[in-house]
Task: structure prediction
Amino acid sequence: MYTQAMDTMGKPLQAAAPASAQEEALQQRFDTRIDAGEFIEAKDWLPDHYRKTLVRQISQHAHSEYVGMLPEGNWVTRAPTLKRKAILLAKIQDEAGHGLYLYSAAETLGTSRDQMLDALHSGRAKYSSIFNYPTLSWADVGTIGWLVDGAAIMNQVPLCRCSYGPYARAMVRICREESFHQRQGFDALLVMMQQGTDAQRAMVQDSVNRWWWPSVMMFGPPDDQSPNSALSMRWGIKRNSNDELRQKFIDACVDQAKVLGVQLPDPDLKWNEERQHHDHGVIDWDEFWRVVGGDGPCNRERLAARVKAWDDGAWVREAALAHAAKEAGRERAVA
Ligand code: FAQ
Result:
């Protein structure tokens, strides 16, 4: 199966046995540092599979931030007020910044941005399933903030303690910004629910109906079907399992939905006193894998938009390279 680790040649990712006594010593030192909760830095010795797992996850994350700009970008010209338009523009700009921090973090592991973008543009790389759904109404912009950024924060706060220093540090800044993103979405929905018309309230409910299940799926497959979790958790890349974070998200959303006055579209959602969590209905994992596999409502459109943006920007990259070469020539002449 294809994986985003770029160069595993179709082999599944498994912790490889160290080849030599020297490598064994390095591996032991690495394991001790992981067990002690130390950060691993770019210049440290890293097991090959740790590096590949990080490149896989960080590049997927970076691509998600980039592709994630597209659904919201659809509403910039139609935002209802100047205030909402300014907030939306700032949010989209933040997502671009997040993508840049993440591509930079992945580059410290020896994979170039061009390689990562080539994998995205050729359809080999994954990005979050959630961005393959359409934004049909203005309420979708608020719902993305509330649910999609809400899910993103739930998943990303533990990544601030990821064992790889450059990723963890990028996540600290990203999470601060994401929490504003979540709040602006909740605020936009609250205004429509409390001060809006019946039609606006219906628009919010329709939006929540469409985005709830895809948001719940964002956390990835169930733990017993998550091939990467065991090693990622052993290495301190992931601190919580997919199902743990999904449950935390669902529990948090139930109370928030009550404040908003919207129904979450799951008739089986109910508090379980024994588990001290909410039980929820069956998740449609066939839909999830269809979307991840490229057959969601907007996969083709999203990829085509990214490829077009890359192609349209070719002249900017060429001009920047020509300028850099000219500057270097001038500096050489002065020297
Ligand atoms: N979509 O073994 P696992 C955002 C893939 S950023 C697509 O459980 P893992 C900001 C997975 O890659 C949102 N593919 O994998 C924003 C693997 O395939 P591979 C993105 C998915 O890595 C907000 C296979 O399934 N956040 O929203 C998905 O241990 C608003 C098996 O899965 C991150 O990327 C999915 N949802 O756990 C922007 C956070 N889930 O690679 C704009 C960092 C799984 O072997 C507007 N990433 N797959 O070919 C992570 O925490 C992890 O990578 C998980 C998946 C939890 C996503």
Notes: Residues 1-13 have pLDDT under 50 and may be disordered. The first strand starts at residue 270 and ends at 272. Residues 3-4, 56-57, 60-61, 64-65, 68, 95, 126, 128-129, 144, 148-149, 152, 155-156, 218-221, 226-229, 232, 238, 242, 292 surround Phenylacetyl coenzyme A (CB under 6 Å).
